[in-house]
Design brief:
- The protein has 254 residues and is an alpha/beta fold.
- The protein folds into two domains: 139 residues, 3-Layer(aba) Sandwich (Rossmann fold), CATH 3.40.50.1000; 106 residues, Rossmann fold, CATH 3.40.50.1000.
- It is 36% helix and 21% strand.
- The strands form four sheets. A six-stranded parallel sheet has the order 5-4-1-13-14-15, with helices on both faces. A five-stranded parallel sheet has the order 7-6-8-9-12, sandwiched between helices.
- Helix 3 runs parallel beside helix 4, helix 3 crosses helix 7 and helix 5 crosses helix 6.
- The chain is globular, with a radius of gyration of 18 Å.
- Keywords: Hydrolase, Magnesium, Metal-binding.
- InterPro entries: HAD-like_sf (IPR036412), HAD-SF_hydro_IIA (IPR006357), HAD-SF_hydro_IIA_hyp1 (IPR006354), HAD_sf (IPR023214).
- Belongs to the HAD-like hydrolase superfamily. NagD family.
- It comes from Halobacillus salinarum.
- Its cofactor is Mg(2+).
């Protein structure tokens, strides 16, 4: 088994399911800390700020700090700022997305936007979707923090951001540019943040369509766990397989 210089770790379904900590999650992170192996929690969840994500993990007994967290909101805001400094943005999303956009000096507007950004929003409304569609029809570029159509929680699989994004795309006929896993943008930014090459980092996650494909697409090694979205038998016929498969992260350590 290869020794890696750092680890990208998914959250939903890998570290926790909703408010429940996943088996082996705390022990795995503790092992990395003990051996001074860098990690980055890489999440498609755009709703929370770095500090909030780290606090949630800490409350679950998983050692985490704000600088260990890289969200799709942060990657999306960086993408916009790089392509259009001081852009005007209409955002559908929660405080994590709003904060990330503001941190990049982007102006939040209701109309006349250069970009429309769709992030998970648990107070989604017809009016928010209407404003998104109107801005896109007036020429705004359409970005989505991620394409997850469903997300794992303690209640089961609930609607994800990809479901909201599809409403705007179908209504306007405009395809969204996706930033989060499995797309290249977030992976390239994360590698640059760690100042490491793709062969030095292992991508860990539970969702084949996001976490594992993100690693595969980035030509990175991947580790899939069976604690969230997908089971191994579901992906057994796929031509591209994870580098490693373990039921839980505890099994990886044993």
């Amino acid at each position: 088994m290869k020794n890696y210089q750092a680890y990208f770790i998914d959250l939903d379904g890998t570290m926790y399911r909703g408010t429940e900590r996943v088996e082996g999650a705390a022990e795995f992170v503790q092992y990395l800390r003990k051996h001074q192996l860098p990690l980055l929690f890489l999440t498609n969840n755009s709703s929370r700020k770095q500090e909030q994500v780290a606090a949630k993990l800490m409350d679950m007994g998983i050692e985490a700090y704000p600088e260990d967290v890289f969200t799709t909101s942060m990657a999306t805001a960086s993408y916009i700022a790089r392509h259009h400094a001081n852009a005007k943005v209409f955002a559908v999303g929660e405080e994590g997305l709003v904060q990330a956009l503001q941190d990049q000096g982007l102006e939040l507007v209701d109309a006349g936007a250069d970009y429309v950004v769709i992030g998970i929003d648990r107070e989604i409304s017809y009016e928010k979707l209407s404003k998104a569609c109107l801005n896109v029809r007036e020429g705004a570029a359409l970005l989505s923090t991620n394409g997850d159509v469903a997300i794992p929680t303690e209640r089961g699989m609930l609607p994800g951001n990809g479901a909201f994004t599809s409403v705007v795309s179908v209504s306007t006929g405009v395809e969204a540019v996706f930033i989060g896993k499995p797309h290249a943008e977030i992976m390239e930014q994360a590698l640059a943040k760690m100042n490491l090459s793709k062969d030095e980092v292992l991508m860990i996650g539970d969702n084949y369509d996001t976490d594992i494909l993100a690693g595969i697409n980035a030509e990175m090694d991947t580790l899939m766990v069976e604690t969230g979205v997908h089971r191994f038998e579901e992906i057994s016929a796929y031509p591209k397989q994870p580098t490693y498969k373990v039921k839980t992260l505890q099994e990886w350590l044993s």
